[in-house]
TrEMBL record:
This is Quinone oxidoreductase. PROSITE patterns: QOR_ZETA_CRYSTAL. Transmembrane segments: none annotated. PANTHER family: QUINONE OXIDOREDUCTASE PIG3-RELATED, QUINONE OXIDOREDUCTASE-RELATED. Gene3D superfamilies: Medium-chain alcohol dehydrogenases, catalytic domain (3.90.180.10), NAD(P)-binding Rossmann-like Domain (3.40.50.720). Residues 14-325 form the Enoyl reductase (ER) domain. Pfam families: ADH_N (PF08240), ADH_zinc_N (PF00107).
Length: 328
């Protein structure tokens, strides 16, 4: 039996005007799928990449990868979930901007009672991103000094808190005094306002000339050179996003010239490829949230009708913390 729901669809790539609010029929869950009545859905930069066509998916399609809600249907072969379970996900097939949807059970995790649906929708993709960055890509032990760009964004604010919980000194960058203050409040050791200060110079000063062993860069094109210049010899450049545009035309010789640097372009999917690994990563995040070492800051709440407005604000860097869609 199908369920009618509202959802965002795009039929062509382009600006926010291509986002269409439509009513769709969600079929009964297929084998190994569950049906989720969504209570909150996360908004992320990757949604804009798919809308513009920077990242490809066959058209027409929905948008969004992150949400939280209750299980209302269970497909054949699903043993981990039952109707009524509280669940969340941060890495699903495209199409989270919807009131009801089917998701492969393997990509969903159990949500503890102490964590709200809104917090879960704001934290899954961003929080699991910080988990794989800090605990897998370059495993922070505590005591390191690191550089994290866009420290006042949704991922950044979780990173500031997680770094503090690990005993790591996080140097965060942001575009305004208001944003640097926000990053500091969330646990950044030091902050740099890149619109007023020279990031490379400040990192050198803060580290007494040593620079950092790892840079986490979700900005992309605009910060590429700066990031490389902040690394110690044989340091690791972790380029995990393209908020300012894709990094291309890279001359590998630069890595040699700047000290035999390493570069990786990781994705969450490659780090949580099984249900067990995804639940384990989520549990590490949930543990810190339940211990109040990480608190979600949701500064923007929208309805699906406001999807264009929401993406416009995110793209223009007018947002702080996390943005979510909420349902009645």
């Amino acid at each position: 039996m199908s369920t009618l729901t509202k959802a965002i669809r795009i039929e062509q790539h382009g600006g926010p005007e291509v986002l269409q609010l439509v009513e769709i029929a969600v079929p009964a869950p297929a084998e190994h799928e569950i049906t989720i009545r969504q209570r909150a859905v996360g908004l992320n930069f990757i949604d804009i990449y798919f809308r513009t066509g920077l990242y490809k998916s066959p058209l027409p399609h929905g948008l969004g990868f992150e949400g939280a809600g209750e299980v209302i249907g269970v497909g054949k072969g699903v043993k981990r979930f039952k109707v009524g379970d509280r669940v969340a996900y941060g890495q699903s097939p495209i199409g989270a901007y919807a009131g009801v949807r089917n998701v492969p059970a393997a990509q969903v995790v159990h949500l503890p009672k102490g964590i709200s649906f809104e917090d879960a929708a704001a934290m899954m993709l961003k929080g699991l991103t910080v988990q794989y960055l800090f605990r897998q890509t370059y495993r922070l032990q505590g005591g390191e000094t690191i550089l994290f760009h866009a420290a006042a964004g949704g991922v950044g604010l979780i990173a500031c808190q997680w770094a503090k919980a690990l005993g790591v000194k996080l140097i965060g960058t942001a575009s305004s005094d208001e944003k640097t203050a926000l990053a500091k409040k969330h646990g950044a050791w030091q902050v740099i306002n890149y619109s007023k200060e020279n990031v490379v110079q400040r990192v050198a000063e803060l580290t007494k000339g040593k620079k950092v062993p790892v840079v986490y860069d979700g900005v992309g094109k605009d910060t590429w050179e700066t990031s490389l210049d902040c690394l110690q010899p044989r340091g690791l450049m972790v380029s995990f996003g393209n908020a300012s545009g894709a990094v291309d035309g890279v001359n590998l010789g630069i890595l040699a010239a700047k000290g035999s640097l390493y570069v990786t372009r990781p994705t969450l999917a490659a780090y949580v490829p099984t249900p067990e690994k995804m639940q384990a990563a989520a549990d590490e995040l949930f543990e810190l949230v339940l211990a109040k070492k990480i608190k979600m800051q949701i500064d923007q709440r929208y309805t699906l009708e406001q999807a264009a407005q929401a993406q416009t604000a995110l793209k223009a860097r007018m947002t702080t913390g996390a943005s979510i869609f909420v349902f009645e």
